DNA sequence: TCTGTTACTGCAAGAAATCGCAATAAAATA
DNA sequence: TATTTTATTGCGATTTCTTGCAGTAACAGA
């Protein structure tokens, strides 16, 4: 709720218009603990606002990502998922083989990110970094 | 060429069948210096093999990623791009705002990856890590 | 509060990626 | 080499995501 308003304030300050659709999308994303697909967000809002369009959901999510209020990642089934950046900060370790996803702490990554900042001037936002590789289960069978 | 055969050998050893389609896809990807979309690969192969189907290209690329011979990343226009893992190892820094992509060295990331390995048993493959954030051009205008 | 500007939405069409299934062909075996 | 098994392909349909456009409504200014 609180962070929901922060996002709205920030968008308004940037000159974006706050429509009922955008409010509902932001609210839905903020209140959820999971990573949601655009489809899922659309489904949840529909009962309250029958005419909300899926394209609007996608466009709003794009805006939120672009403005740094949300992150987009690729879910297990290949669909895009979205979450607020404040939502439980962690690293995603995704197995390229079985698709399993693990949450990991990103303590220890900070020095490297600072190095990137000073070398390239690039400010990495590390809330939802996704790294690919092999999980413990899939390393065992020797496959190279 | 050489690496192309390595990939084919490895797939064969895993019990996958080597079809002309798969050979052409692997060859195309290996010989290209750029990151290619499935569509692009399809387009390049078509002259030589009129009936090759786009779905086959997607399925083969999935296989290559799953088997660790290629990596998949999201291109500037939101399309998926593919590259062999051997192809010029680097980090991708993608600006969430303007979409610009920067190549960066991942020297300095190694200690963190080793930490992940020992903590979670997860073996990150760092050839094509993509990190999102703000590029030097987009940091300036204060937007929070 | 009313009005004008123009960002935003809904709709429908389009593009990108995936899936199911019958036909095909790779490669193991005889 | 011929046969058999079954992984893989092509095709068409489907799903997921994006885009263009005309109508609508947020919000700045009067």
Mind explaining what this structure looks like?
The structure is a homodimer of 144-residue chains. With 144 residues, chain A is an alpha+beta fold. In chain A, 42% of the residues lie in helices and 18% in strands. In chain A, the strands form 2 sheets. In chain A, strands 4-3-6 form a 3-stranded mixed beta sheet. In chain A, α1 crosses α2 and α2 (20-31) packs across α3. Chain A has 2 domains: 1-88, Winged helix-like DNA-binding domain superfamily/Winged helix DNA-binding domain (Arc Repressor Mutant, subunit A), CATH 1.10.10; 89-144, 2-Layer Sandwich (Dna Ligase, domain 1), CATH 3.30.1490.190. Chain A starts with a helix and ends in a 5-residue tail after the last helix. The A-B interface holds A 10, 14, 65-68, 71, 91, 93, 95-97, 102, 104, 108-109, 111-112, 115-116, 119-126, 129-136, 139, 143-144 and B 10, 14, 65-68, 71, 91, 93, 95-97, 102, 104, 108-109, 111-112, 115-116, 119-126, 129-136, 139, 143-144. Chain A binds a DNA duplex (30 and 30 nucleotides) through residues 15-19, 21-22, 37-39, 51-56, 58-60, 62, 78-80.
- For the record, give the distance between the C-alpha atoms at the N and C termini of chain A, rounded to a whole number: 50 Å
| Domain tally of chain A | 2
Number of strands of chain A: 6
Question: What low-confidence regions of chain A span 5 or more consecutive residues with pLDDT below 50?
Answer: none
- Most extensive interface between two protein chains, with residue counts: A-B, 39 and 39 residues
Q: What does the oligomeric state look like here?
A: homodimer
- Per CATH, the superfamily of the largest domain in chain A is Winged helix-like DNA-binding domain superfamily/Winged helix DNA-binding domain
Quickly give the CATH architecture of the largest domain in chain A.
Answer: Orthogonal Bundle
Shape of chain A: globular
């Amino acid at each position: 709720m609180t962070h929901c308003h922060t996002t709205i304030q920030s968008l308004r300050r940037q000159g974006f218009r706050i429509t009922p659709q955008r409010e509902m999308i932001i609210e839905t994303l903020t209140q959820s603990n999971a990573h949601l697909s655009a489809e899922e967000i659309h489904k949840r809002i529909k009962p309250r606002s029958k005419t909300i369009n899926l394209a609007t959901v996608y466009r709003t999510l794009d805006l939120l990502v672009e403005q740094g209020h949300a992150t987009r990642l690729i879910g297990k089934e290949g669909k895009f998922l979205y979450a607020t950046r404040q939502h439980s900060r962690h690293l995603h370790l995704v197995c390229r083989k079985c698709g399993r996803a693990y949450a990991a702490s990103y303590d220890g990554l900070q020095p490297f990110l600072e190095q990137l900042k000073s070398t390239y001037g690039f400010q990495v936002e590390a809330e939802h970094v996704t790294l690919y590789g092999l999980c413990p289960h899939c390393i065992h069978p020797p496959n190279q």
